[in-house]
Amino acid sequence: MTTRALLAVLQARLWAQRRIVFYSCAAAFVAGLVQPSGYAAPLFLCSLLGIACALAQSPGLHPHLDRAEQSAPLFGRELARAKALVPCLAAALAALIYGCAQLLRGAPGVPLTLLVAAAAVGAATLTALCATIRRGSTRALYVMLAASTSAVAYALAVAAHSLLAELAFCAMVAFFSLRQYGEALARYDPI
Amino acid sequence: MPLLRMRDATFAGGTTFVGPVSLELSQGEHAALHCSSAPEAAILALLATGIVKASNGCVLIDDYDPHVQSVHCKRIAGLVPHEPFLLDEGEFARYVAYRAALWGIELGRAQTHAALLRRRLTGMHESFAYPLIATLIGMPRLIVLDRPQPAYARLILGVVGRRGVLSTHTDAAAARAFCPNGPAQLPVTQA
């Protein structure tokens, strides 16, 4: 896939979902201003926003984009990577804005909070992406898996006091989720 | 060599069963399939463009098998969906740029081509013209029309030119409008 095609998917999808991205960023900013410092708020809130952005990639919400992507001469895995970037970028932006709001409040340890949150957000968002091309109970299962990914990441970072374990766990989940999404998208029949 | 070859092609998924369909279509030929229902027409159009893979039988697009060479198939066959595009002019210009990026076409060339096609399709409602223009800027050799409007048959066949054209219909009169030189309809056997 060319960089141009990748950027085109990113731009078209972010433009189509600009309202969701804007409201996510606004919610993150308000939460960053009013929340005390700590990992819970950025990790769970931004993961939730990431899951919402991922679910917004579901087929049918922007039919003209879906049709173009389905009929474009691209491999399923390439398209999966491009589509996965969209909610990840939106959620990362929300996390960054949360961090900016915390900096404005003068909260300590913002870079570390951002790192912990960004890792969990990426893993939860990519897991939730697998729900977008499924229906019924399987879809609900993937959303629950995404939510539990955030919970495990929080437990590793806060309860087990192991930042490295949290980062490793999130990297592993993100890798397998992206692979799974690519495989599913390659076999996906839009009927 | 035929552009499209379908041999007892069937699609089976859940409660949906379509086919078997057999046909051969070469460059410059037109064929119209009269289907018993709208979902059947949509699935046949998707099968003929390689977006949906045949469950049984064989579909070859310029001798490429969509099961293994879907990217090649999608370069050759272009699908014009039945659903009209509800986009304004600005959004359509963005959409042309998006498709040009996905198909790896120079932006200026795609925009000029789209403007030229829009002029040639004067008299056709833009909601129906936009999907056709969007497909044609990808320069496919085979055009598959999913339930096109019979009122615009002359205009559509005029801009399609010497390409192979397959259209699916749920109405016999519409099928005749799109297949003036050949058989009005090809038999579609419902299992």
Describe the structure.
The complex is a heterodimer of chains A (191) and B (191). With 191 residues, chain A is mainly alpha-helical. In chain A, 81% of the residues lie in helices and 0% in strands. Chain A has one domain (3-186). Chain A has helices at 3-16, 18-34, 40-55, 63-71, 76-105, 110-129, 136-159, 163-186. In chain A, helix 3 (40-55) runs antiparallel to helix 7 (136-159), helix 5 runs antiparallel to helix 6 and helix 7 (136-159) packs antiparallel against helix 8 (163-186). Chain B has one domain: Rossmann fold. In chain B, 39% of the residues lie in helices and 24% in strands. Chain B contains seven helices and seven strands. Chain B has helices spanning 38-49, 70-76, 89-103, 107-120, 126-136, 153-160, 172-178, and strands at 4-13, 16-25, 30-34, 56-61, 77-80, 142-146, 164-169. In chain B, helix 3 (89-103) crosses helix 4 and helix 4 crosses helix 5. Chain B is globular. The relative contact order of chain B is 0.22. Classes of the chains: A mainly alpha (191), B alpha/beta (191). Chains A and B meet through helix 1 and helix 4 of A and helix 1, helix 2 and helix 3 of B.
Write a concise keyword list for the protein shown above.
heterodimer; A: 191 residues; mainly alpha; 8 helices; 81% helix; 0% strand; B: 191 residues; alpha/beta; Rossmann fold; four-stranded parallel beta sheet; three-stranded antiparallel beta sheet; 7 helices; 7 strands; 39% helix
Outline of this structure?
The complex is a heterodimer of chains A (191) and B (191). Chain A is 81% helix and 0% strand.
